[in-house]
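Lecture 7 notes: from sequence to structure.

We start with a single chain of 101 residues. Read the sequence below before looking at the structure.
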Amino acid sequence: MYNVTMLGGVIMSKFEYEPTKDGHSFIKEQKLWKSGNSVVITVPKEVLNHFNVTTGDVLMFDVNEDRVELVKKPYTDMDILELANEISNEYHTTFEKLVDR
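Now the structure, written as tokens:
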């Protein structure tokens, strides 16, 4: 059985978990679903809230011999620059009007 962790902490469901030797808890069972040509797994709302992840966030799979970790992809400087560029382009006229005040 694989442990599934997220953001360096262990995913926990308040309904389905069992303690490990190191005192952490992990999901004992989570059903995989078929969606089109993909297989998906649901993440409990409590886990999403605890680790501050939401729809649209990118998670990376870190696969080791007996463990799979889900890690939220960190924002890079390039991601932030791209976002700033998008905002600048979208609100260019507004920014110009503010400068001219």
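Helices lie at 45-50, 77-90, 92-100. Keep this in mind for problem set 3.
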